[in-house]
Specification:
By secondary structure, this protein is an alpha/beta fold. The protein is 26% helix and 18% strand. Strands 1, 2, 3, 4, 5, 6, 7, 8, 9 and 10 form a ten-stranded mixed beta sheet that branches. Strands 11-16-17-18 form a four-stranded antiparallel beta sheet, covered by helices on one side.
Length: 527
C-alpha cells in the first residue's frame, strides 16, 4: 500500500521536472580530478551532456557561489559601499535571499527547496542563529560550519512545513556514519522521498565538503588512498614548481617549493582524489535513489564545482584565486529529460548560467532581467541541427574577476592518509601540517592583497586568449592598473609567458577597451 501511494505521488509530481544540483568545493579539471569520479561521469555526464570549457565567474568559494546562485557576474554582486573598503570591498552573501535568487524563484514557483551541505563558508550566521534567514528554503539539514569539516556534528534542521530551523543535539562522533558525504546523501534523499510523497516538484541542493582542504578521504576509501603512495603524484606539468615568464610581481617573488617539501603537494593531491571518491559515492547514491523513487526520468541532475584548483603550478603550493586556467576551469555535467546522452560540448559555459537554466527548465517565464547568465537549454536540448545553431550563436568571450586577495600562508592542515611513506594510519581523521616556510625560512604564500584582478577570456575561431589586469583598489582606472598580462593559449597552453609587452599599443588598447566593456556589462548586455 505504501509503495502504491508513493508511486501515485511520483506520478502527480511528474508534470514539472525536479532538480538536483551537486556543487563540489575546489574541484579542478586540468589536474585530473575527474579520474576519481567514474560513477558520476557514467551516471550524469555520459547519460547527458558534459561541457569541456566551463568556467567560474570568480575562482574562490563564496564569490563564486554568491554570483552563480543569482545568475550575475562578480562585478554585479558587490556589497554596498565596497568602493571605500580594502581588498576589493569584501564579500556579498545576501544575494541568495533576494527575490531573484535561485532558491527564492523556485520556491515562489511552487518548488520545495532544500539545502544540504555547504552553501557559504559562514552560513552559521544565517542558518544557526536566532536571526536566521530561511524563508526561501523549505528544507534545511546541514552543518552549521561546513567548510572543511568532514566530521562535523553540529547540524541545523528545518523539516518541510516548519516555520524556522532548530538545532538538534550534536551527532555522536563516529568515523564512518558521521562522515559528511554519507550524511549529506542520506539527508538529501530523505528530503526527496518526502517531496515525492507530497506530490511536489523539488530542488535539492547538495554542497559537498570535498575536496576542500584538509581533504580528508572517507574511511572506507582509506586503504585505496594509502595504496597510491608510490604511484599517484601531483601532475608534473610544465608549470609545476616553475615561474611563468613576466608574471605578476607577487608571483615572481614567491620561492620555488623545496625538493624536500614537494611530497606535501603529492600527499595533498592523493587526499583530494581520495576525498572525491566519496563525492562519487554520494552522486551514485542520489541517482540510484531517484530511480528507486520513480522520478529519475523526470529529474535534472547537475554536477559542478565552485572553481578549479592548482597544486604546485607556477610555484603556488595549492589553492585557487588566480587567473590561471587551472583555477577558472570547472567540471559541468547535466542529465535529464530531453537531454540526449553522450554529448560533449565545447561551448563556453559560465556558472552564472546555471540559475537561468534551471528557471527555464522549470517553466518560470518571468525570469529576472538582471541575470547576466544565459540558459543552457538550447545547447543541450532539441535536435542536432537546432543545437548546432545555438552553439554557433553562443558566447565566445566572458569576464572573470577576483577581489578578495589577502596574505595567506601554506601552513594549514591536510589529511595524513596520502602521506608519502604510505604507512597505515589508525585514525582516518589524523592530520598533518603543511610546512609553512622553506629551508631558508622564507614563507610559502599563495595569495596577497595585491591579487585583485579582472580578466577577459576569449575562445573563438581566431583567438584563444586571456587578458588580465590587476588593481589593488579594484577600480581599474587607467592610472591605477598595476599590472597587465596577455596569454595566447594557442601557442602557450600552460600560460608560461606573458606577452603583453610585445603587443602593439593599438592592440593593447583594443583589448583593454573590450575588457572594460565586459566588466561593466549587466543583464542583456553581457555576452
Amino acid at each position: 500500500m505504501a509503495l502504491a501511494l508513493l508511486c501515485a505521488a511520483a506520478a502527480a509530481a511528474a508534470a514539472r521536472p525536479n532538480f538536483v544540483y551537486v556543487l563540489t568545493d575546489d574541484t579542478d579539471v586540468l589536474l585530473g580530478s575527474e579520474r576519481a569520479l567514474p560513477q558520476t561521469q557514467r551516471l550524469v555526464a555520459d547519460a547527458g551532456a558534459r561541457f569541456s570549457h566551463f568556467l567560474t565567474h570568480s575562482p574562490k568559494c563564496t564569490p563564486s557561489r554568491t554570483g552563480q546562485l543569482v545568475g550575475r557576474h562578480y562585478h554585479n554582486v558587490r556589497p554596498a559601499g565596497w568602493e571605500g573598503r580594502p581588498f576589493g570591498g569584501g564579500l556579498n552573501q545576501t544575494t541568495m535571499f533576494e527575490r531573484t535568487g535561485l532558491f527564492a524563484m523556485l520556491h515562489d514557483a511552487g518548488y520545495l527547496t532544500s539545502i544540504v551541505g555547504k552553501v557559504h563558508n559562514d552560513q552559521n550566521r544565517w542558518l544557526c542563529t536566532p536571526q536566521n534567514r530561511t524563508a526561501c528554503f523549505d528544507h534545511v539539514s546541514t552543518l552549521c560550519d561546513p567548510c572543511g569539516k568532514y566530521w562535523g556534528t553540529k547540524y541545523v534542521e528545518k523539516p518541510i512545513g516548519a516555520a524556522a530551523p532548530h538545532l538538534p543535539p550534536p551527532l555522536d562522533q563516529d568515523a564512518w556514519s558521521t562522515y559528511s558525504h554519507a550524511q549529506f546523501s542520506n539527508r538529501s534523499l530523505a528530503f526527496m522521498k518526502d517531496a515525492v510523497r507530497l506530490g511536489k516538484p523539488f530542488f535539492a541542493y547538495i554542497g559537498t565538503t570535498g575536496p576542500h582542504v584538509p581533504a580528508q578521504p572517507a574511511p572506507w576509501h582509506a586503504e585505496t588512498v594509502r595504496g597510491w603512495h608510490d604511484s599517484v603524484y601531483a601532475p608534473r606539468t610544465p608549470s609545476f614548481n616553475k615561474g611563468s615568464k613576466n608574471a605578476h610581481p607577487t608571483l615572481e617573488a614567491m620561492p620555488v617549493v623545496d625538493d624536500g617539501d614537494v611530497h606535501f603537494m603529492d600527499n595533498h593531491f592523493r587526499d583530494r582524489l581520495g576525498t572525491l571518491l566519496s563525492v562519487d559515492d554520494l552522486v551514485a547514491e542520489v541517482v540510484h535513489g531517484l530511480g528507486e523513487l520513480g522520478v529519475l526520468d523526470n529529474t535534472y541532475v547537475l554536477f559542478s564545482a565552485d572553481h578549479g584548483y592548482h597544486i604546485g603550478n607556477y610555484k603556488l603550493p595549492n589553492e585557487k584565486m588566480w587567473h590561471w586556467e587551472t583555477d577558472i576551469r570547472i567540471p559541468f555535467y547535466m542529465r535529464g529529460p530531453g537531454i540526449a546522452a553522450g554529448q560533449v560540448l565545447p561551448s563556453m559555459g559560465v556558472n552564472i548560467d546555471i540559475a537561468p537554466t534551471l528557471l527555464d527548465l522549470a517553466g518560470v517565464l518571468d525570469r529576472p532581467s538582471d541575470y547576466d547568465g544565459k540558459s543552457l537549454r538550447s545547447l543541450v536540448m532539441g535536435g542536432e541541427e537546432a543545437r548546432a545553431s545555438a552553439a554557433a550563436a553562443w558566447r565566445t568571450r566572458t569576464v572573470i574577476a577576483f577581489a578578495e586577495g589577502y596574505t595567506q600562508k601554506w601552513d594549514g592542515p591536510l589529511s595524513a592518509l596520502g602521506n608519502a611513506a604510505g604507512a597505515a594510519v589508525a585514525d582516518p581523521k589524523a592530520l598533518m601540517t603543511f610546512p609553512g616556510n622553506n629551508s631558508a625560512g622564507v614563507p610559502y604564500t599563495f595569495d596577497n592583497p595585491e591579487n585583485q584582478w579582472r580578466m577577459l577570456r576569449v575562445a573563438n575561431a581566431t583567438h584563444n586568449v586571456s587578458v588580465v589586469q590587476w588593481d589593488p583598489t579594484f577600480h581599474f582606472h587607467p592610472q591605477r592598473v598595476a599590472f597587465t598580462a596577455y596569454y595566447d593559449h594557442r601557442t602557450d597552453e600552460h600560460m608560461m609567458d606573458n606577452t603583453w609587452g610585445a603587443l602593439p599599443e593599438a592592440v593593447q588598447a583594443q583589448w583593454v577597451t573590450e575588457l572594460s566593456e565586459l566588466f561593466a556589462c549587466a543583464g542583456a548586455t553581457c555576452p
